[in-house]
């Protein structure tokens, strides 16, 4: 189970880590980031199986299908 920043600060003994955690807890950065609640215990994403090959194309030309990445769902 994850900890909130406030709970993590209660268990931290190193001063440098405590200062960084306090900066994040009191700052505006985390308040401005978009978070979403997940139903269930996982977030599914696509993982690239292999890197695409290098290719060149003319201006306004479409992408050939062999230049895309093979993807696998996780």
Task: Provide a brief overview of the structure.
The chain has 74 residues and is of the alpha+beta class. The chain is built from three helices and two strands, in the order H-H-H-E-E.
How would you characterize the overall build of this protein?
It is a single chain. By secondary structure, the chain is α+β, with helices and mostly antiparallel strands. The chain has one domain (5-73). 31% of the residues lie in helices and 8% in strands. It has three helices and two strands; from the N terminus they run H-H-H-E-E. It has a two-stranded antiparallel sheet with strand order 1-2. The protein is elongated and about 55 Å long.
Question: Multimeric state of these chains?
Answer: single chain
Share in helix? 25-40%
Please identify the structural class as seen in this structure.
alpha+beta
- Largest sheet, order of strands side by side? 1-2
Outline the low-pLDDT stretches.
none
| Fraction in beta strands | 5-15%
C-alpha end-to-end distance? 21 Å
Number of strands: 2
Q: Looking at the structure, what is the overall shape?
A: elongated
For the record, the count of structural domains works out to 1
**Total of DSSP H or I helical runs spanning 4+ residues:** 3
Give the SSE string: HHHEE
Question: How would a textbook summarize the main sheet?
Answer: 2 strands, antiparallel
Q: Quick check: average pLDDT?
A: 76
What is the radius of gyration? 21 Å
